[in-house]
């Protein structure tokens, strides 16, 4: 008999995953018994490995699918469990742990050796484990075996299905290297560098999420640092290796700050020299710039950091980053200079300049240059008027009591652009007028000029407070547009608009006109049963 019930599967998976698992029962491959449960494969988006375990009568499970890797009891686990429950008792029952162990204890030593040896012929993971155990069993370990196993961790691509076995092999190598400590720390340290390099590279070429591979990188790096406490490595060699590792892999676990003391001046110089060589070979490589920046932030000064950041000024944010560094160093005038340079480097209409303007206004005001802040925002708004710059300009001008005449200037700019038919000018002006409670003026804009729908509705919503009849003509065409979409979302939108229109007609004393409109609309669309049902749900 199985050690669990269908209720256990449902409880662990939850209703959603359990229901999905029902559809995967036929995707379950062969089920194999293990001492503590079963293992099986399930075909899904990929082929996943499922293991169900017997924890003293309690069910547990894990799966290699993305959801299962998060620790969830997934639909694939459910499918395997359901197959076990539907199978014959002999197939469903996991092998009793105690019986097998007792049997092994009764076997002759040579028989047991032969059994294990025969299994190892077809099980590469077991063979590697035995080989590593044998290589580290004596006082003089067979280093060549360990080196061979380390080299086998170097891969060009790691398939999703191979990730579990790869991680098992990596962990077996780490266990073997750990057994070398502390007597053979130098050998272990060299090989651990190779493990970190190979497994770190594997994480970059893994088809799956690589969570388990990254866990192996964590373990290897931690063990390497442990050996460094016992036997500090040559600083120059460490610096060169670290540069190679970080230039050629995506190993995020290895941070410079963690080993600055181990590197010392000699190691840091070697690390920097390697990064400089990489820069000379590939000056535009983003990773090299990032590592050089990290190095300077760790051990350099402000001028060095500015120099590194200034090597790449092809985008406006680069100037902001330099300004932030200088501002933090209380070098505000220099920060302002870099922001001004950044503004000169971009077109005044470039939206990316907004961050430069915002930072520069902030620094101008911090040093008492409020007039310069207002002038900058005036120039910016004149070149590319929008609500964000308008608000900044208003706020800056109000600080020094200069806003009333500038407000007239800003509105004049927008009205002139609106008259010329420039895109977005009318909508921008209408929204600004609504924000400033100039509802009549905003209403005039949306009536005379073309504005986008959200702007027209925003103005209409405010106009409806005092003139409900005026805005009926804004909302009514949108009903037909929504119905024309031809799906439930469109019908629901139409019903919502009609609900709003019902209130507007009621406040205008035109209930009869609304009812007549709805009757006509329902007659025209009577064959749209979904629409009729949604209108009924809204009381229409």
UniProtKB/TrEMBL annotation:
Span of domain SWIM-type: 48-85
Keywords: Metal-binding, Zinc, Zinc-finger
InterPro entries xref list: DUF6880, TPR-like_helical_dom_sf, Znf_SWIM
Protein name, UniProt field: Zn finger protein
GO molecular function: zinc ion binding
Organism (species): Saccharopolyspora spinosa
Domain of life: Bacteria
Keyword hit for Protein biosynthesis: no
Pfam families referenced in this protein's UniProt entry, alphabetically: DUF6880
């Amino acid at each position: 008999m199985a050690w669990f019930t269908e209720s256990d599967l449902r409880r662990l998976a939850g209703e959603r995953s359990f229901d999905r698992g029902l559809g995967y029962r036929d995707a379950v491959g062969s089920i194999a018994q293990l001492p503590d449960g079963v293992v099986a494969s399930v075909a899904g988006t990929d082929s996943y490995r499922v293991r169900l375990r017997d924890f003293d009568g309690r069910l547990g499970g894990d799966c290699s699918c993305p959801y299962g890797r998060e620790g969830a009891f997934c639909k694939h686990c459910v499918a395997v469990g359901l197959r076990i429950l539907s199978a014959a008792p002999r197939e469903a029952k996991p092998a009793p742990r105690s019986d097998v162990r007792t049997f092994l204890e009764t076997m002759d030593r040579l028989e047991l050796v032969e059994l294990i040896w025969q299994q190892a012929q077809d099980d590469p993971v077991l063979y590697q484990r035995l080989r590593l155990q044998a290589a580290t069993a004596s006082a003089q370990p067979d280093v060549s075996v360990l080196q061979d196993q380390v080299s086998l961790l170097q891969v060009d691509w790691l398939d999703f299905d191979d990730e579990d076995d790869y991680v098992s092999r990596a962990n077996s190598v780490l266990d073997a290297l750990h057994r070398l400590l502390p007597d053979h720390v130098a050998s272990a340290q060299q090989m651990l560098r190779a493990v970190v390099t190979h497994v770190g590279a594997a994480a970059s070429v893994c088809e799956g999420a690589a969570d388990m591979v990254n866990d192996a990188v964590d373990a290897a790096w931690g063990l390497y640092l442990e050996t460094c406490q016992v036997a500090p490595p040559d600083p120059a060699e460490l610096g060169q290796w670290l540069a190679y590792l970080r230039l050629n892999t995506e190993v995020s676990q290895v941070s410079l700050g963690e080993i600055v003391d181990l590197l010392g001046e000699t190691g840091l110089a070697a690390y920097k020299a390697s990064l400089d060589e990489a820069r000379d070979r590939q000056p535009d490589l983003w990773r090299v710039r990032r590592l050089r920046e990290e190095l300077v932030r760790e051990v350099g000064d402000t001028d060095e950091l500015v120099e590194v950041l200034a090597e790449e000024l092809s985008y406006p944010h680069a100037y902001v980053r330099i300004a932030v560094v200088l501002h933090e160093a209380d070098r505000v005038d220099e920060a302002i200079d870099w922001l001004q340079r950044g503004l000169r480097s971009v077109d005044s209409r470039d939206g990316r300049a907004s961050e430069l303007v915002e930072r520069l206004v902030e620094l101008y005001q911090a040093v008492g240059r409020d007039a310069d802040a207002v002038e900058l925002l005036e120039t910016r708004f004149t070149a590319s008027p929008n609500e964000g710059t308008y608000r900044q300009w208003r706020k800056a001008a109000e600080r020094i009591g200069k806003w009333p005449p500038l407000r007239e200037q800003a509105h004049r700019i927008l009205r002139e652009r609106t008259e010329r038919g420039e895109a977005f000018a009318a909508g921008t002006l209408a929204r600004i007028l609504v924000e400033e409670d100039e509802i009549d003026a905003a209403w005039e804009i949306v009536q005379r000029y073309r504005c986008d729908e959200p702007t027209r509705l925003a103005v209409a919503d405010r106009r409806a407070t005092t003139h409900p009849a005026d805005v009926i003509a804004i909302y009514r065409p949108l009903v037909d547009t929504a119905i024309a979409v031809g799906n439930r979302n469109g019908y629901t939108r139409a019903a919502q608009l009609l609900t709003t229109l019902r209130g507007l007609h009621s406040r205008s004393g035109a209930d009869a006109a609304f009812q007549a409109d709805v009757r006509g609309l329902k007659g025209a669309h009577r064959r749209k049963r979904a629409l009729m049902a949604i209108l009924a749900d809204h009381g229409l």
